[in-house]
Design goal:
The complex is a heterodimer of chains A (102) and B (316). Chain A has 102 residues and is mostly helical. Chain A has five helices and two strands; from the N terminus they run ααααββα. Chain A has a single domain, classed as Orthogonal Bundle (Arc Repressor Mutant, subunit A). Chain B has ten helices and two strands, in the order αααααααββααα. Chain B has helices at residues 6-11, 16-35, 40-57, 65-80, 82-92, 108-144, 150-176, 195-226, 231-268, 274-315, and strands at 181-184, 187-190. In chain B, strand 1 and strand 2 form a beta hairpin. The chains are: A mainly alpha (102), B mainly alpha (316). The interface between A and B is medium-sized, with 21 and 26 residues.
């Protein structure tokens, strides 16, 4: 309930990239994984908006279709950018938590 | 329709390039979500938002001439389609604004009202000219586009023929209507002409114009979805889009200014005629509707300009 007051705090791009670190996934698996990981339910419109952008930027790549479902995987560029972003977030989180604790 | 129902309808809102690339997997995921108990309406709403974003941002669109030309065509249609509503709306204001006090044109606010009204009329004439320019360019583009079907080519010619027919009927009606009258009791009796036939021709002309407008709307829809236009027509469409946006904003400003002038004049007078009050309110409403149409047209123009840059770069 408290998180809702802050508005949208979870970036769908980071959530999708982070989910793909666990291996290639198709759309529905991504939605389920993100839900269990963060509690955020991405709609299909949001998910494919993010996937189209990430694919265009070369951060993820599409694999061959398996029974109408196309898996996506993280590229090496995507891994590098995600690592950098997560380190920044972790740094901010560490500082914030330390200050809250102080 | 499959189990996706309303969600499948929302998927149709996506642009063609997106559907070519993602439709199958999006349908699969939609089916999975519905089976898992998600609300169809929530999914449809989310997909509709995604479709709007895909159309506006074009993220993920392949760098190929086809999809970008298609996007440019759709943007031109978005920029120019508001004219289909603007012209009939403008025709609803048929009278020169009656002055609230019924006086002459010498009062200062009356001068202002007249000037603004003339500006509105000139803007309307500019809009009609722009429509003729745009239609001519579009029609030529459809005729020269190699892959366009014969049905689309006929459709492209029809509004022109219907407009010529309507103008011809109006002229014929004016020619045969009575021009000389004699006073008889409380009314006037015609001394020449064919009043009944002239009336029928007026109605026929109105129907021809109405049909022309409907066919024009169908043509725009067809062009947005399946026409092939040469680069010169797309470039011309971009210019027409800019012109339509500018003229619509001018009409918006003139309508709102005219309604303001009326409101001011009415507030100064007592016992004003009720039709003047209604006209003032109608002009305000007209201005607001023109404003909405101008926003849509401007959005289409911006998207057209961006798409055109990519199309021309890819053509080079």
């Amino acid at each position: 309930m408290g998180l809702k007051r802050l508005g949208r705090t979870q970036d769908p791009t980071i959530l999708v990239l982070t989910s793909l670190t666990g291996g290639p996934k198709h759309g529905y698996s991504l939605i389920q994984d993100i839900q269990s990981m963060s509690g955020v339910t991405l709609g299909p419109g949001t998910l494919y908006g993010v996937l189209a952008r990430l694919e265009e930027e070369g951060l993820v790549e599409a694999l061959p279709v398996e029974e109408r479902r196309r898996p996506y995987r993280l590229t090496s560029l995507g891994s590098a950018i995600l690592r950098e972003r997560l380190e920044t977030i972790a740094n901010v989180a560490r500082i914030g938590l330390a200050r809250l604790g102080a | 329709m499959t189990k996706g129902g309303v969600a499948n309808v929302a998927l149709k809102l996506y642009p063609p390039w997106w559907r070519d690339r993602y439709l199958e997997e999006a349908q699969a995921i939609t089916g999975d979500l519905i089976e898992a108990g998600d609300s169809r309406w929530r999914i449809a709403l989310n997909l509709s938002g995604g479709a709007l974003r895909a159309r506006l941002t074009a993220r993920g669109i392949p760098m190929q001439a086809g999809p970008w030309a298609s996007r440019t065509r759709a943007s031109i249609v978005l920029a120019t389609a508001p004219t289909l509503a603007a012209v009939p709306l403008m025709l609803t204001i048929r009278q020169v604004p009656a002055l609230p006090d019924g006086g002459s044109l010498t009062a200062p606010s009356s001068h202002l009202a007249t000037i603004v009204y003339v500006v509105l009329l000139l803007a309307f004439l500019a809009l009609v000219s722009t429509i003729i320019w745009g239609y001519t360019s579009l029609s030529n583009g459809v005729m020269t586009g190699g892959k366009n079907s014969p049905r689309l080519r006929i459709l492209a010619r029809m509004p022109g023929y219907l407009a010529v027919l309507a103008v011809g009927l109006v002229i014929a009606s004016i020619v045969i209507e009575p021009h000389r009258f004699i006073s008889r009791g409380k009314g006037w009796l015609p001394l020449n002409g064919y009043p009944a036939a002239a009336h029928v021709l007026w109605i026929a002309a109105g129907l021809a114009f109405g049909l022309c407008w409907i066919v024009l709307a169908v043509l725009l829809q067809a062009v947005a979805h399946r026409a092939e236009l040469p680069l010169a027509s797309l470039c011309s469409g971009r210019r027409v889009s800019v012109a339509v946006s500018i003229v619509l904003w001018l009409m918006t400003a003139a309508s709102l200014a005219l309604s303001t002038v009326y409101a001011k004049k009415i507030s100064e007078l007592s016992g004003v005629r009720i039709d003047s009050v209604i006209l003032g309110h109608s002009l305000l409403l007209l201005g607001i509707v023109f404003c909405v149409l101008s926003i849509a047209s401007t959005l289409g123009t911006v998207l057209t300009s961006r798409s055109w840059k990519v199309v021309s770069r890819l053509a080079d």
